[in-house]
Amino acid sequence: MVKLYNADASPNCFRVRAVINELGLDVELVEVDLSGKTPKPPGFLDVSPGGKVPAFVDDDGFTLFESRAIAAYLASKRPERGLYPDDPKRRAMVDQWSYWQAIHLGPAMQSVAFERVVKAKWGMGAPDEATVKSKLAEVEKFMPVLERGLEGKEWLAGTLTLADFAVASTFPLRKPAGISVTPNVQRWIERVEALPSWQRALPKYMAELVR
Ligand SMILES: N[C@@H](CCC(=O)N[C@@H](CS)C(=O)NCC(=O)O)C(=O)O
After folding, report:
1. Thinking of the domain 3-81, which architecture would CATH place it in?
2. pTM over the 0.90 mark
C-alpha cells in the first residue's frame, strides 16, 4: 500500500496532502507523533533517517523524504493533471517558485506565524519581538516578488501546478499572524483556498484558528 508518514499539523505534510487530494490518489496516512511522547511507527526511520515528516513509501517499496520531492514524484504519476508540466520552461517555473518558497518566503512567513500564533496556541511563551520585526521586514521584501509574478495570471505557472500548492502552504495563518497581502496575492490565495483539495488537507488547528 502506498503510504505517507504524516503529521496533521505539519505545513510540509499539508502541502503534500493537498497535492494527493488534487491528484485523487489513494494514499494511506500514517500519523507520526512529533512530540516524542509515543514511539515512532515501525519502519519510519528507515524511510526518513532524519526523523522528519512527510516521508513516502510507494507500493513497489520506493521511498522518499522531502515534501517537494514527494509532491513532484506523485504529480508525475498523473501527468494528465498538469501539476508538474512536462514542458521544460513551465516545469522550470514551477521549480523556481517552489525553491523560492522553500528558501525565501516560506521561512520568513512561518517564523512570524510561529512567534505570533503557534507559540500562543501551544503555550510556548511570548513572541520574540526582535525576530518578528526582522522576519516581517523580509516578508515585506518578498511579497512584491509574488505580486509581480501573479500579474495577469490566475496561477503562478499559468495553470494550477505544484508551485501554487508550494507557495500557498505558508499562507493559512497570515491573518492571525498580522501579515497583510497585496491585491494579486489576495485574489490568488482565495483561489487556492477555494480548492476542495486544499480545504480537506488543511491542518485541524489552522482551520480552527482561521474559521
Ligand atoms: N524540508 C523538509 C522539512 C521537513 C520538516 O522539517 N518536518 C517537520 C514537521 S513540519 C518535522 O518532521 N519535524 C520533526 C523533527 O524535526 O524531529 C520537507 O519539506 O519535507
Report:
1. 3-Layer(aba) Sandwich (3.40)
2. yes
Q: List the grid coordinates of 18.
A: 493537498
Q: Is the Cβ–Cβ distance between 173 and 206 less than 8 Å?
A: yes
Q: Work out whether strand 63-65 and strand 55-57 pair parallel, antiparallel, or are unpaired.
A: antiparallel
Q: Is 98 in the pocket of ligand 1 (CB under 6 A)?
A: no
Neighbours of 119 (CB within 10 A): 15
Whether 169 is in the pocket of ligand 1, judged by its Cβ within 6 Å, is no
Sketch the domain layout of the chain as residue ranges.
3-81, 88-210
pLDDT for 78-90, tens place per residue? 999 999 999 999 9
Residue 170 in contact with ligand 1 by CB distance below 6 A: no
**By alpha-carbon position, which residue is closest to atom 16 of ligand 1?**
52
Residue 54 Cβ contacting ligand 1 at under 6 Å: yes
* pLDDT interval class at 197 (50, 70, 90): very high
pLDDT at residue 171 tops 90: yes
Name the class of domain 88-210. Answer: mainly alpha
- Amino acid identity at 9: A
What does the alpha-carbon distance between residue 41 and residue 48 come to, in Å, rounded to a whole number? 11
For residue 87, how far is its CA from the centre of ligand 1 (angstroms)?
Answer: 30
CB of 52 closer than 6 angstroms to any ligand 1 atom: yes
Q: What is the mean pLDDT of residues 148-167?
A: 98
- What pLDDT digit, counting tens, does each position of 17-63 carry? 999 999 999 999 999 999 889 999 999 999 999 999 999 999 999 99
Would you say the CB of residue 67 lies under 6 angstroms from ligand 1? Answer: yes
